[in-house]
Amino acid sequence: MLGIFSYFRFQLEMLRNTAIDIIKFLFLLILMVIIFTLLQKISQTTAGKKVTKSFNFIESIGSNYELLLGDNVTTNHQTANDWLIFIVFTVMINLILLNLLISVVFNTFDRIQHSMESL
Question: How many domains, the chain?
């Protein structure tokens, strides 16, 4: 009689393990946004730009998060370092981390499916 819940158990185990793996992925994503925010700050200070307003770390993280979603809020990439940071950030976030997310979810699915088949 309890055999009817085996598929439901598989789904719950899949959701639990995927949530754990997604938390690891979100930590990596947040770390990447913070690293590129710090790189922007370093680029601004080493380029000798006249920054009219002070560097606000929280606003800069917000603008990098908007950049992550596809909104280029700052179009004044004037130095080569600014363009390099912009291109590397968009490539790293959009291509590499998206592939990482897909592989994490498929790896979790494969691991849970294998463990359920062995039962």
Answer: 1
**56 secondary structure, DSSP code:** -
**Exposure string for 58-69, b = 16+ CB within 10 A, e = fewer:** eebbebbbebbe
Q: What is the pTM of this model?
A: 0.68
In a domain? residue 7: no
Q: pLDDT truncated to tens, each residue of the chain (119 aa)?
A: 456 666 677 788 888 888 888 898 889 888 888 888 888 777 777 656 555 556 677 887 887 777 777 676 665 656 777 777 777 877 877 788 888 888 888 888 888 888 877 76
Q: Which domain holds residue 83?
A: 13-118
